[in-house]
Design a protein that fits this description.
This is PH domain-containing protein. Keywords: Membrane, Transmembrane, Transmembrane helix. It comes from Salininema proteolyticum. The chain has three helices and ten strands. The protein has 208 residues and is α+β, with helices and mostly antiparallel strands. It folds into two domains: 146 residues, no CATH class; 52 residues. The chain has a five-stranded antiparallel β-sheet with strand order 1-2-3-4-5, with helices on one face. Strand 9 and strand 10 form a beta hairpin. Helix 1 runs antiparallel to helix 2. The protein is elongated. The two termini are 13 Å apart. About 2% of the residues have low confidence.
Length: 208
């Protein structure tokens, strides 16, 4: 969490970075495997041409891990708050420009900040993606707030107790960062609650 000044005369801004995602660690592990296996490939052949081709291939193979590594060293803030409002931004290194910004809301329009989980699937394997979002007049609650189960999901992976468009108006954020978000919101907008809505029937206000 970083506290910084905007332009002179503007409120202090609090920035919260996400923790590295499991997929990022997997890419780094792949990069480490390439680094370990690469020299072995050089040693198995005495042909300079093969060495050259292998070296060029290793450079290409290491580009994704290098991009992830640099992104982890200098992460983009996922949540930015000040006395005026809150901004949520996608932090993946391959997002840029208008695709990076997810939410920009003034506190007067925010009802609450929610920590929730989105159902995702990759290569046929299902899992949960931790998210943080804001409930505003444009993202009203879903069908039923209580009495639901974790299986009550829409086709886009958003739980039925949240608005359909919440998936688009949220960003990935580790639940371990929820207390930092609660602390920051309490500093700049103490009338707004941060609520953990990951599991139905166990919704709870998050405190710093």
């Amino acid at each position: 969490m970083v506290r910084s000044k905007n332009a002179p005369g503007t409120p202090e801004e609090i920035r919260i970075n996400d923790l590295p995602a499991p997929g990022q660690w997997a890419v780094l592990a792949y990069g480490l495997a390439v680094v370990i296996a690469g020299p072995q490939a050089f040693l198995l052949t005495g042909d300079f041409a093969v060495w050259a081709y292998t070296g060029a291939g290793l450079v290409i193979l290491l580009l994704p891990p290098l991009a992830v590594f640099l992104h982890i060293l200098k992460p983009r803030p996922a949540v930015r708050l000040d006395a005026r409002g809150v901004k949520l931004a996608r932090t993946a290194f391959y997002t840029s420009g208008k695709h990076r910004n997810a939410v920009h809301a003034k506190w007067d329009d925010v009802e609450r900040v929610v920590v929730w989980r989105e159902r995702v699937s990759l290569f046929g394997i299902s899992g949960w993606s931790p998210r943080v979002g804001v409930v505003t007049a444009n993202t009203k609650d879903g069908d039923v707030r209580e009495g639901r189960s974790e299986a009550d999901l829409r086709e886009n992976g958003v739980p039925v107790w949240l608005a359909y468009k919440m998936g688009r108006d949220s960003v990935r954020l580790s639940p371990k960062k929820a207390r930092e978000v609660a602390w920051a919101v309490a500093k700049v907008a103490p009338h707004i609650d941060v609520v953990d809505e990951r599991i139905p029937g166990r919704f709870a206000k998050v405190t710093a």
